Here is the input.
Amino acid sequence: MSSTQIPLTATDPAGPTGPASGAKGAARRGRADITLVLSTGFLALVVLLALIGPLLVGDPDEQNLLQRLAPPGAAGHLLGTDQLGRDVLARLVVGSRVSVLVGITAALLSSVIGSVIGIVAGYTGGWTDRVLMRLTDVQLAFPTLLLALAVIGFVGPGLWNVILVLGITGWVSYARVLRSEVISLRTREFVEAARVMGVPGHRIMVRHMLPNVTGPLVTILTLQVGTVILAEAALSFLGLGVPSSIATWGSMLSDGQLYMGTAWWLAVLPGSALLLTVLSINVAGDAVRDRWDPRTYTS
Here is the structure.
C-alpha cells in the first residue's frame, strides 16, 4: 500500500459512494415516503371534509345556551360546544372549507402573477428585467401580512377581498425563483434553435420556458398554500379576514383565547387543526421538492 492511499476503516466499510451510502439514502427515502403518506392522507381528509363535511354535520351557527361550554364527548357534541352552545366539530368542518378555498385560490393567483413576471423578466432581460425586478424589490420592502392588513383595513373584510389581497401580495417568490431559472435556460441549445427558426418570443416562453420551470413552480405553490392559510387565520384572528358570521379557524382561536382556563378545547382544537394542516402541507412540499431534485437523496 502506497503512502498516499487511505485505507477504508470499519466505520466506513464502503467509502463515501459505496453500499453504505446507498443504504443511508434508501433509509432516508423510506422516512420521506412514510411522512409523505401521512401528510397527504391528512390533507386528503381535510379536503374531503371541506367538500362534503358540511353535509354530514349540523348547523355550525345553531345555538343552545343550555349546553354552552359542554366538554368534548358530551351527548350529541363529539368535540364539545363553544360559549354560545354551538357545535365545535361543525364549526371546525366549515372552517376547513374556508381554509382550503383561500389557501388554494390565493396561491394559484400568486403563481400566475409571479410566473408571468419571472419568466418575462428572465427571458427578455434588459430594461424590462430591471423594471420588473425593481418592482419586486419594492414589494419585498413591505411584509406581506402587514401589507394585507393595511389593504383589508382600507377595502374592508370579506372572503374574496382576503383571497385577492393574499394572492396579489404573494407573487414575489415565484418571480425571483423563476427568473433565475429562465436566465439559466435562455442560453440552452433548444432555445437558441427556436430563435434561429424564427419562433416568437412569447411562444418560446410558453412552450419551452414554462415546462422547464414546472418543478420549482409546483414546489413554491405547494408551500405557499400553507403560508396563505396561516395568513388568513391571522387576519380572521384579528377580525380583518372573513366576516365573523362565517366560522373560520382563526376566528375560533380568537373566541377561544378568552376561555383557555375553563374551556381549553375552544382554542386547542382549531389551533391543532391549523398546525397539522400547515405542517402536512410543508411536508408534502418538501417531498415534491425532493421528487423534482433527486440530488437531495445523494447528499
